[in-house]
Amino acid sequence: MSVTVSDFGCLKDGSRASLFTIRNKNGISVEITDFGANLVRLFVPDRNGKLDDIVLGFDDVKGYTVNPSYFGSTIGRNANRIGNSTFTLDGETYKLEVNDNENNLHSSFDDGYNKRFFKAEIKPDDSVTFSLFSKDGDQGFPGNLNMSVTYKLTDDNELVISYTGKSDKDTVFNPTNHSYFNLSGHDSGSVMHCKLKLFSKELTPVAEGSIPTGEIMKIAGTPFDFSELTTIGDRIDDKNELLGIGLGYDINYVIDKKGREYGCAAVLVDEKSGRSITAYTDLPGVQLYTGNCIKTQKGKGGVTYKKRNAVCLETQFYPDAINHPEFPQPVLKAGEEFTSTTTYKFGVC
User: Fold this and answer.
1) Which pTM does this prediction carry?
2) Structural domain containing residue 204
3) 193 is a catalytic site residue
4) Cα 28 from Cα 41, distance rounded (Å)
5) What is the CATH number of the domain that holds 286?
């Protein structure tokens, strides 16, 4: 295992970003920048041993200062949506940035964690920890929060992403990683041929605006049923209210496990390349997003990224959970420490 550091470009104010590259003994490597703790590149072998970069992104830091689709982003304080950009905690009402119709999406677009410098530290086990201080009132959330995200690459071909958080007031804390995976390579176009299995029998249905209704819906017999390996594109354009709202798959699945126990959430398979990803998490939900709203844009190497060129598997507490007491709650109590781990294990088929 090894870690190297290189220059990742300069911002308008003269600040320079760094890129941290972790390699394991099998040739797999992951690259993360201290600007936003964004995951930039992820090289994984296909069935013939050929390495390709399997995540969408940009060649240098300038692309991440805009990044309308949140490629590779560390999201915080709260991933996904909060209805009406408002929540109440401990009897006090908090108003957030309105950035997704009347709702809040990923806390802030212009001032999200993915657009701030983190303090980076290379650990003795060759993991890299990125730390950030978020002051009381930041993005509208209560509490002075110290948070970190650690990226570790194992010789078992696992990318382990671990989060910690501690606040001096009760607050909402629901971080995630927003990487866009294309197992044929970031430059290979549509992922509609890929197959997916989700360890879930239920999802949280949404109304217009993609805010959960509070119900838990069984998915057997619907276009959302991925209980067995199923080609993503087979039913994505079916006439279905939820597919219409999301313009395809953009929905939270309830993972088949108890509470915060660690378990398998998803398996993504690309039979063209032979690559696979198995996702594990201790969080209760996973957002399946098939890149339905990717705006045509230039990415790494001048590649043009388009709609449905990648798939996201965002581990999380359910969307708008803070406004639904019946859902598992993303509340970090004052003085307590939040910890969470999500793992993406790479294989071949």
Assistant:
1) 0.97
2) 2-348
3) no
4) 11
5) 2.70.98.10
